Amino acid sequence: MKRIFNDKVKELNDASNHRSLFLDNERYNNISREVNEAQILRKNNQPLTSKHYQLLKRYDVMKIGDIRKLTESGSAENDDSNIRYYCKTEELFDVLETAHVNIGHKRTKGKRHCFVCDSQKHFFISSFLNFCFFLSVMEAELKKKYCNVIRQVIDLYLVLCE
User: Fold this and answer.
1) Separation of alpha carbons 132 and 116, rounded Å
2) Which residue in 80, 98, 105, 138 could disulfide with 114, CB within 3.0 to 4.6 Å?
3) Mean pLDDT (the chain, rounded)
4) The pLDDT of residue 159 is above 60
5) The pTM is what?
6) d(CA 13, CA 5)
7) Residue 84 class from Cβ within 10 Å (0-12 exposed, 13-18 middle, 19+ buried)?
8) 67-72/106-108 β-pairing
């Protein structure tokens, strides 16, 4: 399922206007490096280019342990619980799966049970309403922690859920 999901996300990325939201490892690391350079320039009162200003307005870099994380600019100013991270494309599936499990996905004797995924037991309308509800709940939960996980990706994950 993970491979299929990643292939579909790649297709969505190629055909989408949301390219700025999908960050592969290379792009994530480049942005992180450029933001870090801009922060150093600003700290040393050196001149910044318009690109530096754009990066600093949109992104921030936080060091958590030995790992540098790309975050939404200004999300940590008031409270650490409001920090919103940028998720790498390679991590999307794991992030969505964790949210899905935490919100209501259950395992029973090796079988996966979820009120969204068990569509054979429900009428079409009931399944559709459950799907929409679950999509909204997952989106709300993910938006608390991540700023670049979009609804189309959550929808894709739920459709692929067995």
Assistant:
1) 9
2) 105
3) 80
4) yes
5) 0.76
6) 12
7) buried
8) unpaired
| The token pair that represents 84 in the structure block | 């919103």
Residue 157 burial (CB count, 10 A): 23
pLDDT given for residue 63 in this prediction: 85
Residues 147 and 75 sit within 8 Å (Cβ to Cβ): yes
Token look-up 């936080």 returns 62
Q: What is the per-residue DSSP string for 107-147? A: EETTEEE-TTT-GGGS-HHHHHHHHHHHHHHHHHHHHHHBS
Q: Which residues contact 121 (CB under 8 A, 6 or more apart)?
A: none
Largest CA distance in the chain: 64
Type of residue numbered 136: S
Instruction: Supply the pLDDT for residue 107.
Output: 43
Spatial CA neighbour of 161 closest among 106, 124, 109, 123: 106
8 Å CB contact between 103 and 141: yes
**Is pLDDT above 90 for 29?**
yes
DSSP sequence for 49-67: -HHHHHHHHHEEEEEETTE
